[in-house]
């Protein structure tokens, strides 16, 4: 699970790889087509597809000389769940900090009022 | 925007860094405390915190000799939005493929029936 999250987030950390996923979301494509679309060498595109394949985000199939890429079985459920949980933590944490700041501001004001008397 | 997504996803691709974010979601902590909790050298933890800081996921503040870490300003909105969009593409793509498979199965069956006549 940890390694799956690691591999998926690492795969998503590159704009070309995110672009390839979006492209394959519209339809299967060969490595050559992807290389052309992203103005990249075949070798470069093969590497990116390899990273996506390892992360389970893409599957490839070779028929004759053409390797066709398709979206893989992973729907990024766990990654979405992790981000969801993180945002909940974040919200709770900043609510908490906000309350601390409010409390401090209130105290400061009442101290000031006391000093003025 | 692209570089922000790149940096955030890269920062999330490590289990210690994800753990640090979860930890800081529960409360601020010094680098020393984090290093102890994750059984890591100070140097190692400083590197991880540096990556999180660069991605806007953590802010640090040095008071005297202690550097305290806190969750940063980024709530991972764009990253969540990207994953959301990807899952929609994924669902649409697999619905489409499913229909193609159903259509092929239907044709095969009717061909078979014709052959049997």
TrEMBL record, chains A, B:
<feature type="coiled-coil region">
    <location>
        <begin position="87"/>
        <end position="114"/>
    </location>
</feature>
<dbReference type="InterPro" id="IPR036388">
    <property type="entry name" value="WH-like_DNA-bd_sf"/>
</dbReference>
<protein>
    <submittedName>
        <fullName>Transcriptional regulator</fullName>
    </submittedName>
</protein>
<dbReference type="InterPro" id="IPR011991">
    <property type="entry name" value="ArsR-like_HTH"/>
</dbReference>
<dbReference type="InterPro" id="IPR001845">
    <property type="entry name" value="HTH_ArsR_DNA-bd_dom"/>
</dbReference>
<feature type="domain" description="HTH arsR-type">
    <location>
        <begin position="1"/>
        <end position="91"/>
    </location>
</feature>
<dbReference type="Pfam" id="PF12840">
    <property type="entry name" value="HTH_20"/>
</dbReference>
<dbReference type="GO" id="GO:0003700">
    <property type="term" value="F:DNA-binding transcription factor activity"/>
</dbReference>
<keyword id="KW-0175">Coiled coil</keyword>
<dbReference type="InterPro" id="IPR036390">
    <property type="entry name" value="WH_DNA-bd_sf"/>
</dbReference>
């Amino acid at each position: 699970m940890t390694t799956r999250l690691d591999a998926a987030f690492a795969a998503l950390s590159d704009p070309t790889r995110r672009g390839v996923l979006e492209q394959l979301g519209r339809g299967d494509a060969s490595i050559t087509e992807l290389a052309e679309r992203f103005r990249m060498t075949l070798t470069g595109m093969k590497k990116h597809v390899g990273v996506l394949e390892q992360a389970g985000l893409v599957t490839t199939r070779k028929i004759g000389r053409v390797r066709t890429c398709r979206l893989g079985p992973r729907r990024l459920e766990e990654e979405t769940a992790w981000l969801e949980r993180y945002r909940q933590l974040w919200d709770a944490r900043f609510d908490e900090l906000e309350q601390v700041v409010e409390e401090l501001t209130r105290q400061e004001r009442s101290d000031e009022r006391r000093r003025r008397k």
